[in-house]
């Protein structure tokens, strides 16, 4: 993540959460937090407990974040933001918590002649993690048409091309889904399973081989002992934890999208 | 396909609940930010290192990066890190731990280090790696904190031991792992029974050891890698050192990485060493001679004359303390010769070394570390400097860790001078200072190196100045000459002597010196003994060089 991407992310995060910028220049930001954001980020539960109990006037804190350090910012009492900075990772977690569930409607770009039907879609962004003693992730964006059952990939990119709004636009109506959300999620899971099964799993074969090799060494080490000591079993279990290939699918976010049908 | 697949259920239930309740729903912008965050946090490749991208402020040296890469990609996260002293094994371990944490492969880790280094590890992991490591202080820490640093002595005791065995640790890091060379010890057994998914053993001296020791160390990490005990004894029992058996060396190198200073193109800042010869005043000279005369006494065998002589070179306070003990032991009658020495102690009114120290500190006009061997001298110096308006911080090995940190900080922030006794050497970093006065020289060159290592280490960007004090025409001058001209200690690469002495089992150099300087009955005998020591060192060096060539060729 480049420094300018961090900067952009932080600005968007605080703007989206209703905070204002006391000062904003190329080097740093001073952010006036809202009460809600203060509670979310500043970790001072006793203060907020006290204010709420006594009915005092809350004074949310200001946060100074330095995105480009130089002599000017050295004098500042602020936090330097870079890719590994704990603060940035806190914002990542907060964004993921606050951006998990959504429902949006497409706004027609041209004036409508009569009413327009919006089709229901279930959109899900998922991380597929392939894990043994090493790990890699893949992020997949899927969309399920809740009437036909069609599943498409790169769904999120398609959403970006459309104008979306939280309220149903005038002269539009939604078609009720034939597939209920719960079974929709089931279909997407099924699709992911199929997708994974078709993958190349050399990585898992190799992990199995490393595992088998180490296990053979371990057995050799204790082969002369009639009754294996406890540490043999501990080590064996540790090898399983270390090497056993596993895949986890976790949902980043997702929701319902009512979209105008497209021919393309 | 034979792979476990796990689907995350938490999102699903929450989502369905919100559909039911018609919200609340996130804004499109938050939704996009969440996805963007996930993209930044995901790791798209099995290979390569992510950690350096997270640590832009940290200067990672190429050899450290290479170690981390090899441990993750080629050694499956189990390795002995055996770089020579000063190459940054802690950085390597931190880098590897960070990498696994970023990839989500390590959530809980246990770091076992010597008690004196616990808080330093905690600090470095937090400050350099943003790893929220915690020092184990209360027993609930084991369960509630993910990254815990503790001493092995605490960890192995009940009730901690059993709690630790219950924890699902993903990674175990053990510093100073050469202490686990004996498989009959409680420490060894404790570590053997830890669940080691990933494991790093850190040691600077793995290979000079006896061959069974390397077997024990490797078997702790990867049981069976060197066969079982019986096979090992049969195959390699006659091998005297790991280096001499190519096959064994190759096997060991699969689980061990050792970088040598000579192999890394690190540019060390310069080290200026200056001998400072001091002239005694007449009173001091008389005192010194009075102590020297004690060797003709009948009770001369019952005490260490050399200690007294060295104390006489340090301060009359140091000498007095030892004399007092001797007199107490004599019972009622104090031998005349001791009375005479006491008289001479009283006659001394100045301390030439201290005067010289003061003069030097004033001319340096920057932070200075003074090392002395004696507590009494330490106290005296502190008082003496105070008389001249110079603030100083005393430091001893016996201090508790918290006090050590506090003193170190005090020196950094408020005082000009840091006065340490010998034992203060371990586990403190004083890179912010670059002037060292060796007020008295230790007789063991290794200890001298440790002292200098406090300031002249990786991370020291400025040149370092070392002043070695010695009083003319005393034992100190002999030692100084020996260290400078014969061993050429100060011209060597850091740690080189370490290797040489270890090879020849010369760690007790001090005793050889003492024997030569004190027990010699004539100047001639002393000279011969000294030359023998030097010849031994030269021989070791010769062997070391040949070994080094072999090492480079393989």
UniProtKB/TrEMBL annotation, chain A:
InterPro entries cross-referenced by the UniProt entry: YqhG
Species of provenance: Geobacillus jurassicus
Protein name, UniProt field: YqhG family protein
One Pfam family here: YqhG
From TrEMBL, chain B:
Species of origin: Geobacillus jurassicus
Catalytic EC class: hydrolase
Source domain of life: Bacteria
UniProt lineage: Bacteria, Bacillati, Bacillota, Bacilli, Bacillales
Pfam families: Helicase_C (PF00271), SNF2-rel_dom (PF00176)
GO molecular function: helicase activity; hydrolase activity
Ranges for domain Helicase ATP-binding: 70-224
Protein name: DEAD/DEAH box helicase
Keywords noted in UniProt: ATP-binding, Helicase, Hydrolase, Nucleotide-binding
Domain Helicase C-terminal: 356-510
EC number: 3.6.4.-
InterPro entries hit by this protein: DEXDc_RapA (IPR057342), Helicase_ATP-bd (IPR014001), Helicase_C-like (IPR001650), P-loop_NTPase (IPR027417), SNF2-like_sf (IPR038718), SNF2/RAD54-like_C (IPR049730), SNF2_N (IPR000330)
